[in-house]
């Protein structure tokens, strides 16, 4: 059920101000091999591509798909569709970010066709985001700034740790498994590891990811850079078995 909160779209809490050092100048020397993957200007172009290559639908699956989105800002990652109008995108992002939303919003936008428990990432999300911010603020060279979604935590009705994973329980088999955050070229960048991506659901995922990443970038006082999207199983829609 939804929780009482402000009705306006400006529901995001302000991230803490960056402290201590010039974060933009702190990053490890690196060679990023994602230059060899296909690049898309924004999520809109990638969404169209995902829809096209999964067009057979049904059980048809594309495996080990990788792409890079160059502009993953929230504005560029807001891609309304018939299934996901802007209001639905904003509702699901607020829910997954752990922000307040109203029962009226939940009643209006929550639909099984828009994703089940495997797309609910809110368990412990505030703490997870704070941990990633703390990691990169205190150690900008770190490779440990991760936000993981291995299972539904106890606070959201799950069974606990990933060692108890059960393939038959939707909420314990999250579609996105991990977001890896890192500082590179003076910007916050991210690689997302996705177990299962339905092309029709992609716009919901990327709106949430972009909002989360912008929140972290603002907290660190850096620009938001590119996003690399790794998908193990890519299908057209939720009609595929055991998504």
The helix-and-strand class reads: alpha/beta
The H-level CATH homologous superfamily, spelled out, is Thymidylate synthase/dCMP hydroxymethylase domain
Domain module count: 1
Give the mean pLDDT: 88
Shape: globular
The CATH class label is Alpha Beta
CATH level 3 topology: Thymidylate Synthase, Chain A
Helical amount = 25-40%
Pick out the low-confidence regions: 1-11, 16-20
CATH architecture term: 2-Layer Sandwich
Strand arrangement across the biggest beta sheet? 1-2-6-5-4-3
Radius of gyration: 17 Å
What percent of residues are in strands? 15-25%
InterPro entries: Thymidate_synth/dCMP_Mease_sf
Region (Disordered): 1-25
Protein name: Thymidylate synthase/dCMP hydroxymethylase domain-containing protein
Short structural description:
With 243 residues, the protein is an alpha/beta fold.
Structure description:
- This protein is α/β, with parallel strands linked by helices.
- The protein has a single domain (42-235), classed as Thymidylate Synthase, Chain A (2-Layer Sandwich), CATH 3.30.572.
- The chain contains 5 helices and 6 strands.
- It has helices at residues 43-53, 86-97, 103-109, 125-138, 202-220, and strands at residues 38-40, 62-69, 146-148, 176-184, 187-198, 223-235.
- Strands 1-2-6-5-4-3 form a 6-stranded mixed beta sheet.
- Strand 5, helix 5 (202-220) and strand 6 form a beta-alpha-beta unit.
- Helix 4 (125-138) packs across helix 5.
- Mean pLDDT is 88; it is low at 1-11 and 16-20.
- InterPro entries: Thymidate_synth/dCMP_Mease_sf (IPR036926).
- Residues 1-25 are annotated as: Disordered.
- It comes from Emiliania huxleyi (Coccolithophore).
- This is Thymidylate synthase/dCMP hydroxymethylase domain-containing protein.
């Amino acid at each position: 059920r939804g929780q009482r909160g402000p009705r306006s779209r400006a529901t995001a809490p302000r991230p803490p101000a960056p402290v201590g050092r010039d974060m933009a100048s702190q990053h490890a020397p690196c060679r990023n091999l994602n230059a060899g993957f296909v690049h898309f200007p924004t999520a809109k172009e990638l969404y169209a591509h995902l829809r096209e290559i999964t067009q057979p639908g049904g059980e048809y699956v594309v495996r080990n798909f990788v792409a890079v989105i160059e502009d993953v800002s929230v504005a560029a990652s807001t891609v309304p569709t018939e299934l996901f109008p802007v209001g639905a995108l904003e509702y699901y992002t607020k829910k997954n970010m752990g922000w307040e939303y109203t029962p009226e919003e939940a009643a209006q936008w929550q639909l099984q066709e828009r994703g089940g428990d495997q797309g609910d990432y809110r368990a412990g999300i505030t703490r997870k985001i704070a941990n990633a911010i703390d990691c990169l603020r205190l150690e900008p060279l770190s490779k440990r700034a991760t936000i993981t979604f291995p299972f539904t935590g106890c606070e959201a009705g799950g069974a606990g740790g990933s060692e108890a994973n059960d393939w038959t329980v939707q909420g314990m088999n999250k579609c996105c498994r991990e977001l890896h955050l890192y500082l590179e070229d003076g910007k916050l960048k991210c690689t997302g590891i996705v177990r299962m991506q339905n092309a029709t659901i992609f716009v919901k995922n990327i709106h949430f990811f972009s909002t989360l990443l912008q929140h972290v970038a603002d907290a660190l006082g850096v620009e938001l850079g590119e996003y690399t999207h790794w998908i193990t199983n890519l299908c057209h829609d939720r009609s595929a078995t055991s998504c």
